[in-house]
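Practice problem: Holliday junction resolvase RuvX
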Amino acid sequence: MTKELLSLDPGRNKVGTAVISRDKEEKEKTIVSLKELEAHLNEIFNKYQIDEIIIGNGTGAEKIIKKIKKLKTNKKITVVDEKFSTEEAQARYLREKPMSRYEKLLRKFISWKVKKPLDDYAALIIAEKYLEKLDKEDK
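Answer key — structure tokens:
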């Protein structure tokens, strides 16, 4: 059975989560409230063979680390730089879910941003960057 990474994009009130295989295959991604996080983590740990947890170093990272340690999972926790992950998340979202004509027109005239929370996409990008860094270090 392959081992997966759990990546978290912490925030003040919500957390983006993504499960990704070591060969960068997305398994799932979602956004949960801080109140739901513990239950969601337990579901993930029961469903996947998580061997490492990657956490972006943004707002709320320390609080999330404490919650994970409280679960006593004995999983490796790695904190990584999440710089530009939000911008990259928006770009990825727009590639996967193209804008309507109206949105494209708006974007030409104003600095339009996606209204949907993209923390799940940011968590996925944080994991991909981490795996790319490991690949470079192995070479």
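Discussion: The longest strand covers residues 14-21. Students who identified this feature from the tokens alone can consider the problem solved.
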